[in-house]
Design goal:
Layout lengths: L3 H21 L9 H12 L4 H13 L3 H14 L3 H14 L2 H14 L7 H11 L3 H14 L6 H7 L5 H17 L3
Helix pairs in contact: 2-3, 3-4, 3-5, 4-5, 5-6, 5-7, 6-7, 7-8, 7-10, 8-10
Amino acid sequence: MIPPLLVRLCLVIGFFVAVAGAEEQKREVVETTPKLEILNQQIAMNAEDSQAFVNRAYTYALLGRKAEARADLQKALSLKATAPMQNRVGWAYFNNGDYADAVRAFETAAKLSEHRSHYDYYSLVLGYWGTGQTKLALENYQLAVERDPRFGEFKTLDERTAEWTPLERRAIHEIYILWSKTWKP
């Protein structure tokens, strides 16, 4: 007879091995989607379409195709490095998990627009959240609220961000909670 303690120990070890194996599973690579097909066609028809490159990069980032996303982001910026393009690039880098690159893109966009674009501050919040710069995230969250009061109440924030990705929503909601408990006037 196997001692009960040994049985429990084996079960616990088996559980942790199973969990570790599940975490190591790779996400299935999605080769194409209808949106990717359209973006590929746009790029095939016009290899200078910076918007198509940044849109495809964002799509690649969401699908976990990081290297392809990075390549398209570099191409998009080589074609057009305006404030709106820098901001869009930042969102793709953010969803790709490249938080330092996202911050650089968001900061460049804000500088180019002289902090006049509606998205400057809340985009910076995402980047600073990703890089762990909580104070900067909170400061920019306050500025985002001043620019768009919908960010100041959870219900309107939730409505405003309803179509954001889970990662984007998590970042903005976490900073909102901190801001509402520690910063909100």
